[in-house]
Design brief:
By secondary structure, this protein is α/β, with parallel strands linked by helices. The chain has a single domain, classed as TIM Barrel. The protein contains 6 helices and 9 strands; from the N terminus they run αβββαβαβββαβαβα. The structure holds iron/sulfur cluster.
Length: 239
C-alpha cells in the first residue's frame, strides 16, 4: 500500500523558499515538559503538537489531536515561534497527530535547526521522511499489528535512516513483539540508528514479559517506558 503522503520535491523547494514564520499551521497545543521517551528521556523540551492525523491506531493516546474536523488552532509559524521562545529551551520536538501531514512543518523544522536548536520530529511511520532536514532527529513510530494500521507503514523510511534517528515499536502482544523483532533484524536497525525502542502499550501488557523476550533473543534494542505516564496521570495532557 502506498504511504499516505509523499511530498513532491518541487513542492518541498517551494515550501523551503517561503518565510517559515509566515506559513500557516493547524496547531493542537504547545507545552514545556521533559522528554518522556527515547535516548533523550528526562531532558527538558518544548513540544509543538500539530493537529490532525489520517491514521486511526487502536492504541493512539492522542486521539484529541487526530480529527481534522474537530479542528485545531489556525496559527502562523510566528505564533508558534513566539510561544517556543517564551520557554527559553533549545530543544524542540514536533509531534501530533501526524506533524508531517502538514508540509509547512519541513520549513519550520529547518528554521529551528538554522537557529541552533536541537530539533526532533516524532512521526507515525506512514509519511515519507526523506525530505526532513538532515539535522533533525527523526523518531519513526512503526505501526505494529495491534495498531490495525500495519498496511500503512512506509518501509522505505527504514532504508534511508540516519545515525541520529530512532525507530520505535509500540508493543501490546507477543505478535507485536515478533513482528517488531523481524523488522528490526530484516532492516538491521540497531546498526543504522541511535536507538531501536521497544515500548509497551501503557497498562496493557506485562512489561517484564517484553524484557524477558528481548533478553532471550539477545536483541540489540532498548526497552522503554513512557516516563511522563508515570510522573503524571496517564491521561493528562500537556506533559
Ligand atoms: S499515527 Fe500517531 S497520532 Fe496518528 S492515530 Fe496513530 S498513534 Fe495516533
Amino acid at each position: 500500500m502506498q504511504p499516505v503522503l509523499n511530498l513532491a520535491p518541487a513542492d518541498h523547494h517551494r515550501i523551503l523558499a517561503a518565510d517559515p514564520l509566515s506559513l500557516p499551521f493547524d496547531l493542537n497545543e504547545i507545552f514545556f515538559s521533559v522528554q518522556g521517551e527515547g535516548t533523550r528521556a528526562g531532558i527538558p523540551c518544548v513540544f509543538v503538537r500539530l493537529h490532525g492525523c489520517k491514521l486511526r491506531c487502536s492504541y493512539c493516546d492522542t486521539k484529541y489531536a487526530i480529527d481534522r474536523r474537530a479542528g485545531g488552532l489556525s496559527v502562523s509559524g510566528a505564533d508558534i515561534d513566539q510561544r517556543v521562545r517564551e520557554y527559553g529551551c533549545r530543544f524542540v520536538e514536533f509531534t501530533g497527530g501526524e506533524p508531517l501531514e502538514q508540509p509547512n512543518v519541513f520549513a519550520l523544522m529547518k528554521y529551528y535547526a538554522d537557529e541552533g536548536f536541537t530539533v526532533a520530529v516524532e512521526t507515525g511511520g506512514h509519511v515519507d521522511v526523506s525530505l526532513v532536514d538532515e539535522r533533525v532527529i527523526r523518531i519513526i513510530d512503526m505501526k505494529t499489528p495491534s495498531s490495525k494500521m500495519l498496511p500503512k507503514n512506509n518501509y522505505h523510511n527504514l532504508e534511508i535512516l540516519r545515525p541520529h534517528d530512532e525507530v520505535k515499536f509500540v508493543i501490546g502482544s507477543r505478535e507485536d513483539y515478533e513482528w517488531s523483532k523481524k523488522i528490526t533484524l530484516e532492516y538491521d536497525l540497531p546498526h543504522k540508528t541511535a536507538a531501536v525502542l521497544f515500548s509497551p502499550i501503557f497498562g496493557t501488557v506485562e512489561y517484564k514479559q517484553i524484557v524477558e523476550w528481548i533478553l532471550e533473543d539477545r536483541l540489540d534494542v532498548r526497552f522503554q517506558l513512557q516516563m511522563h505516564k508515570f510522573i503524571w496521570h496517564p491521561d493528562m495532557r500537556g506533559v
